[in-house]
Amino acid sequence: MPSKPRIGITLGDVAGVGPEVAVKAVLTPAVTARCVPILIGDLSVVRYYAERLAPTRTLRAINRPAAAKTEASDLQVLDLKNIEFSSVRVGQVDVASGRAALEYIRTGVDLCLAKELDALVTGPIHKEAAQQAGINAPGHTEYLAALCGVSEVRMLLVVGHLRALHISTHLSLREALDCVTQERILKTIRYGVAALQQLRIGKGRIGVAGLNPHAGEGGLFGREEIEEVAPAVAAAQSEGLDVTGPIPPDTIFHRMNRREFDLVVALYHDQGHIPLKLMGFDSGVNVTIGLPMIRTSVDHGTAFDIAGQLTANPESMVNAIELACVMSSDEF
Amino acid sequence: MRPRIGLLLGDPAGIGPELVAKLIALPETHARADVLLIGDRRQYLRGADIASTLDLHPVFIECPSSTEDYAPGNASAAAGDHVLACLRTAISRWQVGRIDAIVFAPLNKQAMKLAGMSHSDELRYFADLLGYRGSTSEINICGKLWTSRVTSHIPLRAVSSALTVEGICEAANLLDRALRTGGVAEPRIAVAALNPHAGEGGLLGTEEIEIIGPAIREARARGMSAHGPLPADTLFIAARRGDFDGVVTMYHDQGQIALKLLGFDRGVTLAGGLPAVITTPAHGTAFDIAGKGTADVRALREAFAVACRMVSR
Lengths: 332, 313
Fold this sequence. Notes:
Shape of chain B: elongated
Strand order of the largest sheet of chain A: 3-4-2-1-5-12-11-6-7-10-8-9
Strand content of chain A: 15-25%
Structural class of chain A: alpha/beta
CATH architecture of the largest domain in chain A: 3-Layer(aba) Sandwich
Number of strands of chain B: 11
Helix content of chain A: 40-55%
CATH topology of the largest domain in chain B: Isopropylmalate Dehydrogenase
CATH superfamily of the largest domain in chain A: Isopropylmalate Dehydrogenase
Oligomer: heterodimer
Order of helices and strands of chain A: EHHEHEEHEHHEEHHEHEHEHEEH
Largest sheet of chain B: 11 strands, mixed
Number of domains of chain A: 2
Number of domains of chain B: 2
Number of helices of chain B: 12
Radius of gyration of chain B: 20 Å
Number of strands of chain A: 12
C-alpha cells in the first residue's frame, strides 16, 4: 500500500473562518483516511476551535512534517507560534493576523519545495489585512507564484466534474481582454492538458469558450474568435489534443455539465466563475496550475461576518484536501 | 376582469403550432384567461394533430395564410410573411383594446428577414408598429428571477465604453416597471459589476466607481430599490436564494451564462419597455424536432402565465 501523502493546510487569516473550516476538515474521517493532514498555524488558534469542535481529541504540536504520525487520531499542528488567539480580533481586519497568514503560506511553500510536504492546501486570507502586512501581490495565487519564482500560473476552478481554467487571473475586464491572444490561449490549453493529468483524468476533452455573445456570430459581434481563439484551437488540434472551440460562452458550461467536456478554457475571470460558483454552492476548489508544487485552496473568503460562530461550512476545504490527495497520489 | 390574451402560433414550420395546441388543451389555460388565437385555423388543427390533442374550437381572429403547407424545419419567406401579418394583426387588436396582452410561440428570425423585415429583431418591429420611441430591452425571466441588460449584441471589448449612467438607470427602470406590473410591490434590484470582485475598490477596474456606482445612486434617487455594484460571480447565487427580484447585467453573457444553467431553456422572454405586454418562450423554433409532437410546452405555459399576471391587475 502506498504511503499516505503529507498535506499541509494553512489556517489562512486567523480572524476569519479559515481555522474553523481547517479544524472541521481534519476531523473528517474521509480526510484522515486518505492523507496525513498537518495544520500550519498557531497552536493557540487551533486549540480554541478544537476544544469546541472535538474536546476529546488530543492536540499535538510538531516542528517538522517528518515528525507527524501517519496513523494518529491526534490533530497535528506545525506550530509557528506567531500569534496568540486571545489577542486576535475575530472578524476584523488586523495587520497582525495578516502577517501571521503570510508566514503560514511561506512556510508551506518552503516545505513543499523541500519535499517535506506533498501538497499545500490554503485557507482564505483577507485581502486588506494581507496588503497591510505587505503581500505585494494582487492575490493569494500571485503571491504563491512569486514565492516559487514562477512568472506565469493559471487559475483552475473545480466544482465536482466541472473544471474552468482561466487564461488570466485578477485583472480588470479591459486588461483581461488584452490577454485574449492566440499564444496565451494555446499555452492555457497546454496547461489544461497538464491539469487533467495531475487530476488523474488522463487525456480529457477540452472546450474553449468564445469571448463575445454567440461566440461573435461569424465576426458580427467581435473578431477575437476568428483571429485568436480559432487559430489557437487549430494549433492545439494539430498537436493531437482533443480540443473544441470557440463555443458560445452561454452554452459551453451547460455542455460541460452534460459531460461533453472535462475542462473548459475560460477567457476572463467571471466567464468561468459565474457558472462554477452557481453550480458549486459552497463546494468549489481553486487549484493553481504551473507551480513547481501542488496547491489547492478553498474557493471562499474569510467570511468575517460569521467568523468564530462555529457555523462555517467546511465542504470547500474538505474538497480542496481531497483534490490535493488525488494530485499527490502515486497511482495513475 | 379576466385577461384576454392574443395567442400566436409562431412560425408554422417550427414547433409553435403543436405547442399552442398543447397549451389550449390545458384546463388551467382557460381558467387564467380568455384566449383568442391569432392566425390560420388550419395550422392550429395541424398542431393539434401533431400533439394528439382534441380540437377544442378556440376563438379565432383569422389571419389566413397564403398556403396550407409549410415544410417543417424550413425557414421560408412565405412562413415569415404570414408570421409578420399575424404580428401586425395582434398589435392592431391590442391598440383597439380587443386583447390585453400578446403571447407568441417561437418565431424564426431568418424567415422574417426573408419576408422583408428590416428591423434587427421583433422587439424593434413591435416598437415600430406601436409608434413607441422609448428604450426597449429584452427581459429574461427564469422562475422568479427577472433580468435586463445594459448592452446586448456587441463585442465584449465595446461594453465598457457603452456603459453610461443613463443606460444603466434605464435598464433598471425597465426591469422595475415590468416587475411592478408583474405584481412585485417593491422590486429589489441587484446591479452587477463589470469587473472581477466588483473592481476591488478600483484595483481591478474603475467602471464600478465611475459609472455603475453613480448609476445605482441615481436609480435610488428615482425611487428604485437598487443594490450594487455586486460581483457577478456571487450575485446569481444570492438572486437564486431569493435575495433579489431582478438583476441588471452589464453584458450579454453575464446574465446568459447564469440563466442557461438555471434552466432558462424553459424560461420566458418579455419585450421590456413597450406599452404592450408581449411574452414568448425563451427557446426557438426547434426545427430539428418540429412535427414530432415531442416539444415541451412548459416555457410557453410560463410565458402565458406571466402575461396573464401582468395584465390581471
